[in-house]
Amino acid sequence: MRQAGRSLPEYREIRGAGTILRAIADPDLATEITLQPVRRYGVDAAILYSDIMTPVHAIGFGVDIEPGVGPVVAQPFTRREDLTRLRPLDPEADTPYVLETVRNLVAELPVPLIAFAGAPFTVASYLLEGRPSRTYVRTKALMHTDEALWFDLMDALADLAIASLRSQLDAGASALQLFDSWAGALSPADYERFVLPSSTKVLGAFADAGVPRIHFGVNTAELYGLIASAGAEVVGVDWRTPLDAARTRVPEGVGLQGNLDPAIVAAGWGPTEPAVLDVLRRGGGNPGGRGGHVFNLGHGVMPETDPETLERVVELVHAHRPDVQA
Ligand code: CP3
Fold this sequence. Notes:
Helix content: 40-55%
Number of helices: 16
Low-confidence stretches: none
Distance between the termini: 30 Å
Mean pLDDT: 95
Strand order of the largest sheet: 1-4-5-6-7-8-9
Bound molecules: coproporphyrinogen III
Strand content: 5-15%
Number of strands: 9
Largest sheet: 7 strands, parallel
């Protein structure tokens, strides 16, 4: 998630003003920012400091990320000719800074590094809407009025995600996460028809890569079964669905990641402690050989969160680690 740095004073100190894309393009800075939460919190994995929009930005689609707003696109995708603005990604030439950051991190990190990419639907929603949307009117209009162009767009974005993920893994990352943050805007029927094939293609490209694959979305309670069918080992769950309920919606053996409410964490340790214990209890154990549980928040850390609350979250989760209890 967008989570690591946002609550840390040491992040705000070194991040610099302006677009985050500039910080991402500076390997020494991006390395340090990735390391900060690992150092401060002692979490069990690091997520690369980059963004889901990095590849489309790097091939020159004309994307920026406005502080406090999110991704904005100067000339949104409107017609077939716009496909030519989505040329294939050449990671060594287009995103050498990402690869340098990954290599730096793999050399320095005491824990695994998670590579990531935006899923075709969520990236497409920014390219089509031009900025964050609540309704996805343009995105849904394209899928329902020009299916051929929709699938060509999804295919181009799937190839970008695959090229980006492959380059991060080749540079040494040891797990991957596919972020389809806004998939929950879709009905199950639309998700299955218009989105599932391209996410399945991305995840399928790494079926034999020997790395765990995590597939994340927000507000996806009605979609967990379909999301699990795309092939990842682990499905992300937000706080709206208790983990024991989510467990019944994915096949046996699929792991769950989540799902502490970030707004509760922002409210301080008082409400957070019982919420953490509840997540651990509901995610708990591995009854009947079912998939495991990766403790996480249900979405990203809110910027106003007190870092000390997060320190205590990690401490409490570690005290309940099965290998610690055994
Ligand atoms: O947090 C981390 O350091 C991990 C790296 C990371 C970022 N973005 C950096 C970032 C990751 C994994 C992402 C993924 C991402 N980016 C997603 C998928 C995950 C999710 O949170 O749902 C999405 C939807 C985006 C697009 C995006 N980038 C949005 C909506 C925003 C928020 C704009 C804002 O200022 O609130 C961003 C900006 C962004 N990307 C920040 C970070 C740390 C915010 C702080 C900053 O600009 O410094």
